[in-house]
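Me: I keep going back and forth on a fold encoding question. No explanation is needed for now; the record alone will do.

Assistant:
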Amino acid sequence: MEKEKKWTYWNFLSELIPEDIAARSEEEKRYFLREWEGLTVTKNVQPPDSVLQNIRNLPPIGLQLVPEWVMDRVKEAADDYVRGRWLSSIALCGVMGEFLSFHLLENYVRDNGIGGLVRFSKRLGNQGGRLSALKELQVLKEDEWKALDSIREIRNEYVHLNRTGNKMKGDCLRSIRNLVEFLNQHKLFLLKF
């Protein structure tokens, strides 16, 4: 049986950065940033060829008329994937999926009233229930529901630590692709953000 490695981590860079950051030279600032990167390197840090391959793996992103908050989270999730931060990317995609389901429900109520939604009230407490309600209300088409539900399943798999390991990178890419494809296809400008 292989003995488990014990790890320690020491990072006191925060104590070295002067309080008045704005007064520091650009060279000093870059030094601290390089030090930070060196102190936070992980096994998943991607070499340049992998970074480029990860960028190539991403679907084209052509989002229009979405709120800045949505665009920033999509870019953040994509960048985390490219840099090998798969767990944070999966979590961001999950957060975006939940945000979109709440937003779609809010728009449904605004446009149709609460009556049609009342019969789903017991299911609205979790993401799977919200998505199935949106599908039954025909707010989501089958392929849109599948995309958001896949993001939910992947998020649950990793955020609740049911599984870790080699499969995470592929699942992360699948989450990002589903999110981007959903946003590219769904007419968000009609959703009254």
